Amino acid sequence: MAAPQGIVRVYQHDQTITFQVEGRATVHQSPLVRRFAEQCLASGATVLRMDLRHCTLMDSTFLGTLLFLKRMIDRQGQSEFALISPSPQCCRLLQQMRLDKVFPMVTVEEPAASAWTELKSTPEDINVFKRNVVQAHQELARLEGPAGETFRELADQLARELESEKKADPER
Question: Which residues pair with 51 in a beta bridge?
């Protein structure tokens, strides 16, 4: 049964890192996935995959985080990024936003349940959390067409709010 709040697991095989989402992929899992992916890529991982076969929902922050990671990998030019077997719900969302044209998708067998390690959230610096939300929506705003237009105003507003908070409290 899918987890309503969402569980993120990771499986590492050689230089391939595979994340798996069970249930909902939301703003709450985004910083965890991003931080772990960035650490793995900095340590030499060459393939990053997101297994979405058990994912029931992706919110905008999670989608934007996936875009952020894909674009980061594309800029490096030495790593690959792909979505694995997106669920029907994820496929519909990706098609509606035309992200099915952005993300490579592959089908591979699911590793045994014992191969996965659940990623646990750690106390998050609220400023890191907010920056991730802003950056995720800025990635969505960069999309061409209606999907990008939908997020441009929101991304700008979020960025302005974050900047105002920084000015009000320079310690941030």
Answer: 20, 84
What are 85's two structure tokens?
């077997």
Q: How many domains does the chain have?
A: 1
**Is 1 contained in some domain?**
no
3-state helix, strand, coil in the chain (%, to 5): 50, 20, 30
Q: Which domain holds residue 48?
A: 7-168
CA pair distance 154, 61, nearest whole angstrom: 12
Of residues 20, 145, 105, the one with CA closest to residue 6: 20
* Cross-strand pairs, 49: 18, 82
* pTM of the shown model: 0.88
Identify the CATH number of the domain in which residue 67 sits: 3.30.750.24
> pLDDT tens digit string along 20-67?
999 999 998 999 999 999 999 999 999 999 999 999 999 999 999 999
Q: Is residue 130 part of a domain?
A: yes
Give domain status of residue 34, yes or no: yes
Task: Look at residue 170 and tell me whether its pLDDT is greater than 80.
Answer: no
- State the number of CA atoms in the 13 A half-sphere of 11 facing the CB: 15
Tokens of 86: 């997106």
